[in-house]
Amino acid sequence: MSDHPSAAPEFVKTRSDAPPRFFAAEAAGLAWLAQAEGEGGAAVVGVRAVGDTSITLDRLTEATPTRAAAEDFGRALAATHAAGARAFGAAPDGWSGDAWIGRQVAPMAEHATWGTSFADLRLLPYARRAVQVGHLGAAGMAAVERVCQRLRDGEFDDDRPPARIHGDLWGGNVLFTPGGVVVIDPAAHGGHGQTDLAMLELFGCPYLDRVQAAYAEAAHLPADWPQRTGLHQLHPLLVHAASHGPSYGREVERVAVRYA
C-alpha cells in the first residue's frame, strides 16, 4: 500500500483474481481490530467500501517514525490484544469460514488451547504446502512436526487468554502517520500476542526496541518472553516458505530445531 500526499483522500486496493469474499475478510478483520480502539487499542485504517475485486480505504499520510509514536503503538497493541477473542484460532466476530494471509488461505477454527491452534492452523498447513512445492525438505518438515507435537502437548501454553491479534504484522503493515501508528492489511484472528511481536521483529520496524519494551510492560510479559520469539516466527516463515522459495524453508528448519 502506497501513499502520495497529492492523491485523493481514499486508497483503492484491487485484485482482479480475488477469490470470493477475499476483501470482505480483510474488512471484517479491520472492523474487529477497530473495535478495540475505544479501549486504547491500535488505530486501524478506515474502510469505505468493499467489493468482489477491491476494497476502498482511507488514504493515510505517512510521517517520519518517532520513538514516542513507537512506544505509544506498543502500548496500544497490547490493548488491542487484551480486547480478546472467542477462542484461539477464532475468526473475527461476524466472520465465518477461512480467511487469507497475503494470497494464501488462513484456516480459522476454534481451539481450546493456543498450542493446538498454532500447530494445526498456523504451522502444519503451510509446512505441507512448502513441502509440496519443494521449498521445505524432509528434515525441516520433521522438525516442524516435532515442534507441533510439543505445542499440542501444551508445553508452550501459558495462562494468557486468546488475544485479538493482527496476524500479519510485518513492518509494511505498520504505518507511522502524523497522528501516530495506523495498522493495515490484517489476517486477524484469536491467537497469542507474541505472534504479532515476533513478526515485527522478523521483518523489522522503526524503533522496534521501543515498541517491544512498551508492549512488554503494558502486557506484563514475563522476563523470558524473548526466548519464544523464534517459535512464533515459524508461522510467517512457513507462510513465506510455501510461496517465496527454499531460502525460507532452510530458515524454518534452522529455527524449528531450536524448539523441537
Structure write-up:
The protein has 260 residues and is α+β, with helices and mostly antiparallel strands. The chain has one domain (10-259): Aminoglycoside phosphotransferase (APH), C-terminal lobe (Aminoglycoside 3'-phosphotransferase, Chain: A, domain 2), CATH 3.90.1200.10. The chain contains eight helices and ten strands. It has helices spanning 22-34, 67-82, 114-132, 138-152, 193-203, 208-219, 229-241, 246-259; strands spanning 10-14, 43-44, 47-50, 54-58, 99-101, 104-106, 163-165, 174-177, 180-183, 189-191. A three-stranded antiparallel sheet has the order 1-4-3, covered by helices on one side. A hairpin with a 2-residue loop joins strand 5 (99-101) and strand 6 (104-106). The protein starts with 9 loop residues before the first strand and ends with a helix. Mean pLDDT is 95; it is low at 1-6. GO terms for molecular function: kinase activity. This is Fructosamine kinase family protein.
Write the layout of secondary structure elements.
Blueprint: E1 10-14, H1 22-34, E2 43-44, E3 47-50, E4 54-58, H2 67-82, E5 99-101, E6 104-106, H3 114-132, H4 138-152, E7 163-165, E8 174-177, E9 180-183, E10 189-191, H5 193-203, H6 208-219, H7 229-241, H8 246-259
Parallel strand pairs: 2-9
Antiparallel strand pairs: 1-4, 3-4, 5-6, 7-10, 8-9
Helix pairs in contact: 2-6, 3-4, 3-7, 4-8, 5-7, 7-8
In short:
The protein is of the alpha+beta class. It has helices at residues 22-34, 67-82, 114-132, 138-152, 193-203, 208-219, 229-241, 246-259, and strands spanning 10-14, 43-44, 47-50, 54-58, 99-101, 104-106, 163-165, 174-177, 180-183, 189-191. A hairpin with a 2-residue loop joins strand 8 (174-177) and strand 9.
